[in-house]
Design goal:
disordered N terminus, about 550 residues, alpha+beta, 2 domains, elongated
Length: about 550
């Protein structure tokens, strides 16, 4: 292993391109709007806002279909293609079974053109261009994913590392003595095309965050993030809104970064480690050289298929920690910066979808687990309404999990070795397979519990019906022996026969109700009667238990 060397002077990043992928949980819709899906309700609410539903790239005119979209499509296996783009179209498609669309719906807003970041107090602000701002909805999942894509040119490498560390935090984890949000950018501002401020961060409002957590037992998010998501509103806030969301994990958002530098082989190992772990290592912190993540950095987080020693090599290094996906390459290589066929195009399309799917899996599984925990916490076995609600929630969660497994859960995304290798690297660091097994076992245990409880109730019902049938059999055989004419009820005036019928009906109803009420004790008596080991006195005591006080 190469020894760590002191960091050299910070090189210049010719192109910095980054994407935040922020999964959020949607709360169930209220009853008055529950007929629509989340994305349909969102579309209805955003008619007067900047969010707009966008069509996919598969336009009716093939001349408008770009090569980068084609390369993206053919990079994935057929079942992943059906998830991302919908089912294949054919002129011979049956009218009874039309091809299905993608279960993914994307909204985009274009009113935000720039992001102005002031990383620290007294530092000059940095402006980054906002390339895309999208919101992804998914069928059958109470989940959205916010995607913010930004880019800039000619930034110092140290500045890029600080952006990756400080930006993409939903709320401050604490405050400095000067009142600044701990680990946050000093100020983040969204700008429109004319440079006007649309919203800005408020992480310095310490009392706002303290009061919110104290009142709602839930974290509050910074105003500039809340502004992006409206008309979606935070679940526990007092702000009115039909569509509400809550955080799934902690405040650090998953991020992808594309970094083009001159001669990347001149970077020291410390610079590589700090780039790969930029979201977790404080820029001012000394490198923890004895940490396993530093000692085993190359083995754990690097995929060096294209990091070749030859002069003609791509000189491109891929690094992934799960929450951070970083691509570093040579700014002098035209293929690395090619936005149509090169690494940049792959980063924005194939690798973005790989990262999005991996985090879709993790977020969905965490939501399933959260629903199970919430259902158990809500259960009161002494309340019948609570028990029924618990059963409905568990069965609904089980059905949704089955649909998730067959529609969204993949182990292999692509036949291309490097795309598949990056997916496995990301999914392994996120522990998606282990998390899936845990959630599946939890749901299976819940389902088995409900099945066993239903079988127990059915068994008790069968016991009661059996006891009543035995008693009815005695009456049926006896009356059948006498020809059903022991007392001539069929003779006499009409009123007398009606009274006889009502009295007999009342007596029989009383006997049946008594048998149902004492069916458990009658069952115990019949069991004692059939047991040859029970003495005659014991059988009489069991009979007395039917009409007397319940035996302890």
């Amino acid at each position: 292993m190469t020894a760590l060397t002191p960091a050299t002077q910070s090189p210049s990043v010719r192109l910095f391109h980054a994407s935040l992928v922020w999964p959020l949980q949607l709360t169930p819709l209220t009853r008055d709007i529950s007929e629509g899906r989340h994305w349909e309700v969102f579309e209805a609410l955003t008619k007067d806002s900047a969010w707009r539903l966008i069509d996919d790239e598969f336009t009716e005119d093939p001349t408008q279909f770009e090569e980068r979209h084609y390369r993206e499509f053919v990079s994935f296996l057929p079942y992943v293609q059906r998830f991302l783009y919908g089912e294949g179209r054919s002129r011979n498609s049956s009218a009874d079974d039309p091809p299905g669309n993608s279960p993914m719906h994307v909204f985009r807003r274009k009113d935000i053109a720039k992001l102005r970041l002031t990383l620290r107090r007294d530092q000059a602000p940095i402006e980054l261009h906002v390339v895309h701002l999208d919101l992804y909805f998914f069928h059958d999942l109470d989940l959205i994913q916010l995607n913010l894509e930004i880019r800039s040119n000619d930034l110092p490498l140290d500045t890029v590392r600080e952006i990756l560390f400080r930006f993409g935090r939903a709320y401050p984890s604490g405050w400095e003595e000067t009142g600044e949000g701990l680990h946050n950018a000093y100020l983040a501002e969204w700008l429109d095309a004319d440079g006007r401020v649309i919203a800005q961060s408020d992480t310095r409002k310490r009392e706002k965050y303290l009061g919110y957590v104290c009142t709602h037992r839930s974290p509050c998010i910074s105003e500039h993030w809340a502004c992006l998501l409206r008309p979606l509103v935070l679940a526990h806030s007092d702000e009115p809104g039909d569509l509400r969301y809550r955080l799934i994990e902690y405040q650090r958002m998953p991020v992808m970064s594309f970094i083009a530098v001159d001669n990347p082989r001149q970077l020291s190992r410390e610079q590589w480690v700090r780039l790969g772990l930029a979201t977790t290592l404080h820029p001012d912190e000394a490198l923890p050289i004895n940490e396993p993540m530093v000692l085993e950095f190359e083995q754990r987080y690097c995929q060096d298929r294209f990091w070749t020693d030859s002069a003609a090599g791509p000189n491109t290094r891929f690094m992934c920690t799960g929450n951070a996906f970083t691509v570093v390459g040579d700014a002098a290589a035209p293929f690395f910066l090619d936005s149509e066929r090169g690494v940049l195009a792959q980063f924005r399309h194939q690798y973005f979808l790989v990262f999005l799917i991996a985090h879709l899996h993790r977020a969905s599984l965490l939501i399933f687990s959260e629903i199970l925990v919430d259902a158990v916490n809500d259960l009161d076995i002494r309340n019948d309404a609570s028990v029924r609600r618990f059963k409905r929630r568990i069965r609904s969660n089980f059905e949704t999990f089955l649909r998730f497994t067959h529609r969204y859960w993949f182990h292999e995304l692509s036949e291309r070795p490097h795309v598949q290798a990056m997916y496995r690297l990301c999914a392994n660091h996120l522990r998606n397979d282990a998390l899936y097994d845990d959630v599946r076992d939890e749901i299976r245990e819940m389902s088995h519990y409900l099945d066993s409880d239903s079988q127990r109730r059915q068994s008790n019902t069968v016991v009661r019906l059996t006891v009543i049938t035995i008693l009815g059999l005695i009456a049926t055989v006896t009356t059948g022996y006498f020809g059903m004419n022991i007392i001539p009820f069929g003779e006499g005036p009409v009123w007398q026969r009606a009274v006889h019928g009502l009295v007999a009906c009342g007596v029989f109803i009383g006997l049946v109700l008594f048998a149902v009420a004492r069916s458990k004790r009658l069952s115990d008596f019949l069991e004692a009667l059939s047991d040859e080991r029970v003495t005659l006195g014991g059988k009489f005591r069991a009979l007395w238990g039917v009409v007397g006080r319940q035996q302890r």
